[in-house]
Write a structure and sequence with these properties.
The structure holds 2 protein chains of 2 kinds. Chain A is an all-alpha fold. Chain A contains 5 helices and no strands. The N and C termini of chain A lie far apart (about 75 Å). Chain B has 8 helices and 2 strands; from the N terminus they run H-H-H-H-H-E-E-H-H-H. Chain B has a two-stranded antiparallel ribbon with strand order 1-2. In chain B, helix 2 crosses helix 3, helix 2 runs parallel beside helix 8 and helix 3 packs across helix 7. Chain B is elongated, with a radius of gyration of 22 Å. In chain B, about 40% of the residues are buried. Classes of the chains: A mainly alpha, B mainly alpha. The interface between A and B is large, with 59 and 53 residues.
């Protein structure tokens, strides 16, 4: 019994992430926040949103991998998470296609909404 | 089996062979819940993106009315609270009881600061009569306040509806989260958690970090649209 407990103690625990890793992620998140505000002040035209979202996705990935331990989690949790983002991207793709201008230059949804 | 369970950890439920299996199952369950949350907020953000694409001028003008400084300060506050939460989980993994309680208390404090700032922001919008459905000013007033005219006034109202919907649901998650943090801190103080068993601390951490992630997207999308 004592051996079993010792084994559980050694192998059963989730990976203990060193505090240094947490602090580095924390610093990266702060820099990312500063960068977000800084970049928003510049005019990149349509790319402002792209820049903002790229930084946000990077920050979110850091939180998920390190603060939420997904880097150290089992495959099943990683698959569940990837599947969720897969569905989200699918939803985003379908919706943005529906609301983007057609080849004849019209946006049917906009016409429908403003006519009311 | 029965012998193993008779000497087992008191937190081990009878249908799990050991604490590790129990932790894996609980963790997977939490992630399944968070995945539904990702799609819940994701759907709302996509709705926001669609209307912002349709009415860029009104959304930029309405967005400029938000206080970027308060939004940025709150982003930093929430990131700090994510760090203290991560340190609480770290302390739990090492079975350091006092450190768990301390870091959870810090997380509660930072979460409360965030909500306090949110109250100030909501109050400003209330004063400026920019709360759709409850206190929306006259056409002249809103036109003057946001420097907009015509149909864009309605579109600005749509922006503020989405603003209050998204930030309100985010704040609701924190209002739910803070008592949970307090409950977990109370249990930690009673000595319920150790290096062998600390799943509740870990799962609460997952929830809190998720709330942080939502804000990471809300801040640039809502506050910085018309910044440049």
């Amino acid at each position: 019994m004592a051996t079993t407990e010792a084994n559980v103690h050694q192998n059963g625990h989730p990976h203990v992430v060193p505090v240094r890793t947490y602090l580095l992620v924390f610093l990266a998140l702060l820099v990312g926040t500063w960068l977000t505000v800084f970049a928003a002040g510049k005019d990149f035209g349509a790319f402002n949103t792209v820049v903002a979202l790229t930084i946000a996705i990077t920050k979110a990935t850091l939180v998920i991998l390190f603060f939420m331990h997904v880097k150290y989690s089992g495959r099943l949790i990683q698959v569940v998470l990837v599947a969720a983002f897969g569905w989200l991207i699918l939803l985003l793709t379908i919706v943005s296609d529906y609301y983007s201008p057609r080849t004849d230059g019209t946006v049917p949804s906009r016409a429908t909404i403003t006519r009311q | 089996m029965s012998d193993a369970h008779s000497t087992a950890h008191p937190a081990l439920a009878h249908h799990f062979p050991d604490l590790d299996a129990q932790r894996s199952a609980a963790s997977l369950g939490m992630w399944l819940f968070l995945v539904t949350e990702i799609l819940f907020f994701g759907g709302l953000l996509i709705a926001y993106a669609v209307y912002r694409g349709l009415y860029p001028v009104a959304f930029a003008a309405a967005s400029r009315h938000l206080n970027v400084t308060l939004g940025a300060v709150n982003t930093v506050v929430l990131i700090c609270s994510s760090l203290t939460m991560a340190l609480a989980v770290h302390a739990a993994a090492l079975g350091k009881r006092k450190a768990i309680v301390g870091w959870l208390a810090a997380t509660i404090l930072l979460g409360s600061v965030f909500l306090g700032v949110k109250v100030v922001e909501y109050h400003d919008k209330w004063e400026d009569q920019l709360v759709p459905g409850l206190r929306w000013g006259s056409a002249e007033h809103v036109a003057h306040e946001l420097k907009l005219s015509g149909a864009d006034l309605d579109h600005a109202q749509l922006y503020f509806s989405l603003y209050f919907g998204l930030t309100g649901l985010h704040a609701l998650h924190m209002i739910v989260g803070i008592p949970i943090l307090a409950w977990i801190a109370w249990r930690a103080r009673r000595g319920e958690f150790s290096a062998d068993y600390n799943t509740p601390v870990e799962l609460t951490g997952l929830y809190w970090h998720f709330v942080d992630i939502v804000w990471i997207f809300l801040f640039p999308l809502l506050y910085l649209v018309g910044h440049h």
